[in-house]
Amino acid sequence: MSTITPEEVEHVANLARLEFNEEEIAEFTHQLGRILDYIGKLNELDTTDVPPTSHVLPLHNVQKADDAHPSYDRAVVLDTAPSAEEGYFEVPKVIE
How far apart are CA 46 and CA 40, in angstroms? Predict the structure, then answer.
């Protein structure tokens, strides 16, 4: 098992601004040790013939086409607003 100490868990928790009791620290120490063991096993695999990927599925251009559409008529939109002034929406002041 990879060695990760409770002090290292406390250090990482401190960096993340988290507080744990002793029982939780012991549990996370064990869990993180198991995770590091698993990563160690993955590092033993020969991946020389495996092409690098950024996604597990072969996705290509999943974005919607950027088509131009006419916008709404300003007068119609402002007519539906609770309050408008000089062609703009009027909203309550939020900064003093």
Answer: 13
8-state DSSP, 88: E
Of the candidates 7, 4, 9, 6, the residue with the CA atom closest to the CA atom of residue 36: 4
Residues with Cβ within 8 Å of residue 33, at least 6 apart in sequence: 1, 2, 3, 4
Angstrom distance (rounded) from CA 36 to CA 38: 5
Give the integer Cα–Cα distance in Å for 36 and 1.
8
Q: Which amino acid is at 50?
A: V
At 45, is the secondary structure helix, strand, or coil? coil
Give the residues across from 85 on adjacent strands: 88
Q: What is the pLDDT of residues 31-42, one digit of tens each?
A: 999 999 999 998
pLDDT greater at residue 92 or residue 27: 27
- Compute the distance between CA of residue 6 and CA of residue 28 in angstroms, rounded to an integer: 8
Closest among 26, 59, 17 to 7, alpha carbons compared: 26
